[in-house]
Design goal:
The chain has 236 residues and is mainly beta. 6% of the residues lie in helices and 41% in strands. It has two helices and 17 strands. The chain has a six-stranded antiparallel β-sheet, covered by helices on one side.
C-alpha cells in the first residue's frame, strides 16, 4: 500500500516495502518527497532489489498479537551471488521495550551452512550463529530493525551495497579460489563484506583500492563513487 516519505513513520514504512517482495508505492504531495527515505529501496536506475516472495511472519509469532506484547517478525529471501540470502524485519508495536529472538532457520530458503552472519543493518554490527542458534536482542518501544542473514563463506561473505536494505542482491556472482574472492557487483557505491580473515589487498576493476578500506572487526567497508555500472571486486 502507499506511504508518505515525509511522514514521521516513513522509516518503518520503507522497511516494510523492502521486505514485502512487492512494488513500492509512495504518494507524497508534489515537492514533499524525501529522497533519503527512497534511496535504500532502489538501485541508481530506479529498479528495485526484489525479494522472492511475500514477507511472512516467523512461525513462532503467527498466533500472537504483536500489539499486546512481543514483536512482529517478518522474513523473506533473495538471490545472492548464485545462492540465497535473507533477512528478518522486526517491529515493536507496543509502548514498551520488548525482547526478541530468531534463528537463521526462520528463513527456510537459506542454504545449509555451518555458520551464518547476522548483520544489524541499522546498528552496523555483526555476529555469527549456527542455523538453529538463537540471536537475541531488545527492541525499544515502537522500534524496528532489519537483520540481514548470510551463509558464512570460507573467505568473505559480501553484503553488497551496504546502504540498500536488500543490497546483497547486488552481488551477481561470487567465486573463491586460492585465497582470492572475486565478486561481481551490479553497481558501485558503499560496498561491505564480512570475513574472519585479514584482508591483504582489494582491487576494483583492476585498480588497487586497499588503502580505502575501513575495518571494524569482521566488517569491511569500501566507499566508492556511486555509478550505475558493474564492478569486479577482488579480495585477497
Amino acid at each position: 500500500d502507499m506511504f508518505w516519505t515525509s511522514h514521521k513513520n516513513s522509516g518503518e514504512h520503507a522497511l516494510l516495502r523492502a521486505i514485502s517482495g512487492g512494488p513500492v508505492y509512495f504518494s507524497d504531495r508534489v515537492g514533499e518527497t524525501d529522497p533519503a527515505v527512497l534511496r535504500p529501496l532502489a538501485y541508481l536506475d530506479g529498479s528495485l532489489p526484489m525479494m522472492i516472495r511475500s514477507a511472512k511472519p516467523t512461525e513462532d509469532c503467527i498466533f500472537n498479537d504483536p500489539r499486546e506484547g512481543g514483536v512482529l517478525k517478518l522474513s523473506n529471501a533473495a538471490p545472492w551471488g548464485g545462492s540465497m540470502a535473507g533477512g528478518i524485519a522486526i517491529f515493536n508495536l507496543t509502548q514498551e521495550a520488548q525482547s526478541f529472538s530468531f534463528t537463521p532457520a526462520d528463513v527456510p530458503e537459506l542454504p545449509e551452512a555451518d555458520r551464518y552472519w547476522i548483520y544489524d543493518w541499522y546498528a552496523k554490527t555483526v555476529c555469527s550463529v549456527g542455523r538453529d542458534e538463537r540471536f537475541e536482542g531488545k527492541m525499544d518501544a515502537q522500534g524496528y530493525g532489519w537483520y540481514v542473514i548470510l551463509p558464512e563463506k570460507e573467505t568473505i561473505s559480501c553484503l553488497g551495497l551496504a546502504d540498500k536494505y536488500v543490497g546483497f542482491t547486488a552481488v551477481e556472482s561470487l567465486a573463491e579460489a586460492g585465497g582470492c574472492t572475486t565478486v561481481v557487483i551490479r553497481e558501485t557505491g558503499c560496498i561491505s563484506w564480512l570475513s574472519r580473515n585479514e584482508v591483504r589487498s582489494v582491487e576494483v576493476n583492476g585498480v588497487d583500492v586497499t588503502d580505502k578500506i575501513v575495518r571494524d572487526g569482521c566488517l569491511y567497508t569500501l566507499a566508492l563513487e556511486e555509478k550505475p555500472e558493474k564492478a569486479v571486486l577482488q579480495v585477497r
